[in-house]
Amino acid sequence: MSHEARALELENVARRFGRRWVLRGVTLDVRAGESVALMGRNGSGKTTLLRVIATLLRPTRGRGSVFGCELVKEADDIRALVGVLGHHAGLYDDLTASENLRFAMQMYGLSTPRTEIERALEEVGLGLEVQERVRGFSAGMRRRLALARLMLRPPRLLLLDEPYAAFDQAGIDQVNAYVRKIVDNGGAALVVTHDLARASGVAERVMRIEDGRIGLDTATEDLLREETDSVA
């Protein structure tokens, strides 16, 4: 695999909080045009790893790159390449749905036409809530609004932290369709999930964090087959 084909590359990445090592030496790569599911028990470091990749946390040691940009030295460049859908949507309760999206785009230095904002809201099923304040939104509606924000500024590397939580089946289908769109356009996705069945529609590979390292890296269909055989 050529260097240019790597969307994400990590080598012995570790992260410590005080005396506690959450990541002990993560080595992995994700190719452009690929979606990978990341699994692991609670507290295994999945969310910490996503925050390191998104440059929200500096690694204690190790190196990595996103589409050739180094994690620490080129953090600003990486932030322009990465899109995150996490537990906390980062929305403003006192703003309407459209105002939240307009403000987010302004923070990126973009002037987005009202029609594009309304189109994105319509696409995620919030067409009737354009002028509603987010304070009254359910958890699922907040997730949809965060997804619309990603759509207005498509990333090259998509980082999803339990993206199916609070979504009904229509929302799950929207998330998977968006992942496929990013990947089909030469981007990549890393999907943290406990639900491999839902992620299997978009993830060709599965990795599992064990003891702060990648303990499993296999084809999704192979893991699903093993789980089916073990139940049988």
Q: Brief overview, please?
A:
The protein has helices at residues 46-53, 75-79, 97-107, 114-123, 139-152, 169-184, 196-199, 220-231, and strands at 6-17, 20-31, 34-39, 61-66, 69-70, 82-85, 157-161, 188-192, 205-210, 213-219.
Q: Which radius of gyration do the C-alpha atoms yield?
A: 18 Å
DSSP helix fraction: 25-40%
Helical segment tally? 8
Q: Could you give the distance between the termini?
A: 37 Å
Beta content comes to 25-35%
Oligomer: single chain
Q: List the secondary-structure elements in sequence, H or E.
A: EEEHEEHEHHHEHEHEEH
Low-confidence region ranges:
none
Query: What is the residue-mean pLDDT, rounded to a whole number?
Result: 92
Structural class: alpha/beta
Reported CATH architecture of the largest domain: 3-Layer(aba) Sandwich
Number of domains: 2
Biggest sheet descriptor: 6 strands, mixed
In spatial order, strands of the major sheet run 6-7-8-3-9-10
Question: What layout of secondary structure does this protein have?
Answer:
Layout: E1 6-17, E2 20-31, E3 34-39, H1 46-53, E4 61-66, E5 69-70, H2 75-79, E6 82-85, H3 97-107, H4 114-123, H5 139-152, E7 157-161, H6 169-184, E8 188-192, H7 196-199, E9 205-210, E10 213-219, H8 220-231
Parallel strand pairs: 3-8, 3-9, 6-7, 7-8
Antiparallel strand pairs: 1-2, 1-4, 4-5, 9-10
